[in-house]
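Structure ticket #2291
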Amino acid sequence: MRYLIAFLMLIMPFTFSHSREKGRLVNDTINQQEAVKLKELATICGLNYDFAHKKVAFYTGSGGGARTDKSRYFSACGEIKVDYSDTITPLAKIYILDKDEKARANGYDAVIVYGSVKQFRSKKAYIRRLHRSKPLVKSGK
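Resolution: structure written out below.
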């Protein structure tokens, strides 16, 4: 019981500090500077894609299911250089959405999943999540 109470005391401030009730909408559109960094990642992952002015959703967490925003992604991963040799599992997965998928995913062009230690979810699962999701709101801190 003590451990449960301690765990809840640790989790509660985090949960309420990330409330989506207050604050401003998060801008998911990638600017030119961010596009350069994401193109580097795409090249490493074997993709050729221009992210400039595209709407990108970011997911993280141990199972890749926690929605986050681009500022958290760039602060966490912006300067990390990773060896993507065949023996190392990539720390990020990029899903590029086609025209039909984009329509079902509320206009998102791509999904980037990072920091996931488990197997990545399917592209279809992220499209379904985006279809059901409300716009991200950044807390007013």
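Closing remark: The CA atoms of residues 57 and 64 lie 12 Å apart.
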